[in-house]
Amino acid sequence: RSHRWEVELRHPVSGEPVLQTTVVGKIDARYEEEFGVLKQVHAETFYKLLKLWNDDGYPVAGCRWVTSKGQEKEEKLGVLEVGALELVRTLRGSNGAGEYRRVKELLHGLKTIPIAREMKYQWQKLTEREVLTAIAHYTWQEVEHAVRGKAGRVRIWFSEAVTEAFLKRDVKQLLLQPYL
Predict the structure, then answer these.
(1) Are 166 and 50 in contact (CB under 8 A)?
(2) Residue 115: which of 136, 128, 132 has the closest Cα?
(3) Quick one: three-class SS letters along 82-103?
(4) C-beta atoms surrounding 33 within 10 Å
């Protein structure tokens, strides 16, 4: 399931009508079914991740990668590195085995569920489309310790849109509430 809605806005300079369409979720091309939706728990997780990143001094790293079309792309992404135990306790309140699994599911959702915004400038017959996710990537490394058992480190890269909005303190863009 996904959410889709349209709203007509006015261009800030010309006053002409602009149609903004927002779709949250994915469409499976084989069946043309929409699936994947951000829920309240995703928003709460996202806000807690932003707080951890802020408390860490919001480090940013330049990341280079090759797109599926073979083009090189460079982005500046916010990076949060935290111990798995601390992350699970912060996000879920306890550190039971089920909570680790749930945190991984939530991170996966924040990474894969797209938010597509399309702006149609009707008088110019121009359409701009932006697709973003809350986080670009994450890694979860588990390490065996002789004394403590399993421990781990989690590294989360916030998407470029989130990183830019956070650094500009553009709070409206950071609120996932409108997309729930």
Answers:
(1) yes
(2) 132
(3) EEHHHHHHHHHCCCCHHHHHHH
(4) 12
Distance (Å, whole) CA 172 – CA 128: 19
Residue 103 has pLDDT above 70, yes or no: yes
Exposure pattern of 124-152 as b/e (b: 16+ CB <10 Å)?
eeeeeeeeebbbbbbeeeeeeeeeeeeeb
**CA terminus-to-terminus distance, the chain:** 12
CA–CA distance, 93 with 21 (Å, rounded to integer): 36
Helix (H, G, I), strand (E, B) or coil at 7: strand
Torsion of CA 42, 59, 69, 32, to 10 degrees: 10
Mean pLDDT score across all residues of the chain: 81
**pTM of the predicted structure, to 2 decimals:** 0.75
Yes or no: say if 142 and 150 are a contact pair by the CB < 8 Å rule: yes
Residue 174 CB partners (closer than 8 Å, separation 6+): 50, 162, 165, 166
